[in-house]
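hiii so um. not sure if this is the right channel but i have a protein structure encoded as tokens and i wanna go backwards to a sequence. like what aa goes where. can anyone help
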């Protein structure tokens, strides 16, 4: 496996003349950030050796290398979800490759359902911890000890310094942000009312179908991690007849995208 990571990283390194310092997974809420990358070198996933190919509606698959603010970055436009049928090794493959490209920091965004009763649709949430509720673990199997330890400590995964900077940026720009625990579950179904209640009882503030695998792998290999969710729907809507649809999730994510983009671009500048 490690040879594949290296092979893919070498292929990509040959196309650029810098070392990206920051990796960004452009999930919901950050879709447009890719267009802000200057002097971009764009490589479609299907042209990258060993890369899985993205299929889900609303996500196109490419890597964008270039300059964002004062940093060299690599952004993933389109991620691989477990519910699409990928195994966790495929879901996290790009994050392993980022390590071999020299990336030291990972920024992740996603859409999530709000469980915390204080959350409203359209809120932004800084992730300060997570619960892994996926049935397959990305680190299962032989440990790649060149990359990290067999039993990684998980007590400080989301970097507290980056969280502090992001909160300062939000305050300076009059953007309200929540902070909380993200539970990653397999999907593709959204939760039943009973499942939303269960996740809340477990202590989670928001639920979604991504992020946790990539974050585990990033942390395993020693990257600093920052994650943010757009709360696209809430588990106890004022009108109980309101249903959650993929279209609604995307619409809400689009509305708050400028705010999330502002926080993330400025965070990258101040890292
Ligand atoms: N559940 C799971 N994933 C989601 C949700 C949700 O309610 N909203 C957006 N992504």
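sure thing!! here u go:
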């Amino acid at each position: 496996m490690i040879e594949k990571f290296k092979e893919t990283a070498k292929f990509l390194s040959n196309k650029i003349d810098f070392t990206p310092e920051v990796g960004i997974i452009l999930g919901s809420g950050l879709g447009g950030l890719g267009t802000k990358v200057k002097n971009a070198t764009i490589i479609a996933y299907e042209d990258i050796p060993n890369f899985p190919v993205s299929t889900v509606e609303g996500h196109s698959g490419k890597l964008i290398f270039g300059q964002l603010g004062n940093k060299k970055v690599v952004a993933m436009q389109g991620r691989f979800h477990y519910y699409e049928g990928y195994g966790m090794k495929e879901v996290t493959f790009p994050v392993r490759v980022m390590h071999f490209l020299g990336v030291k920091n990972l920024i992740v965004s996603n859409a999530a359902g709000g469980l915390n009763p204080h959350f409203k649709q359209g809120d932004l949430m800084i992730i300060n911890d997570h619960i892994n509720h996926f049935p397959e673990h990305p680190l299962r199997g032989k440990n790649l000890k060149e990359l990290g330890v067999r039993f990684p400590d998980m007590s400080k995964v989301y970097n507290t310094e980056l969280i502090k900077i992001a909160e300062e940026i939000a305050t300076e720009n009059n953007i309200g942000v929540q902070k909380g625990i993200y539970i990653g579950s397999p999907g593709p179904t959204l939760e039943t009312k009973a499942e939303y209640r269960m996740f809340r009882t477990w202590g989670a503030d928001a639920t979604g179908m991504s992020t946790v695998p990539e974050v585990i792998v990033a942390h395993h290999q020693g990257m600093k991690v920052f994650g943010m969710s757009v709360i696209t729907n809430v588990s106890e809507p004022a009108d109980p007849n309101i249903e959650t649809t993929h279209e609604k999730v995307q619409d809400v994510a689009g509305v708050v995208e400028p705010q999330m983009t502002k926080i993330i671009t400025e965070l990258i500048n101040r890292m």
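oh and The longest strand covers residues 224-234.
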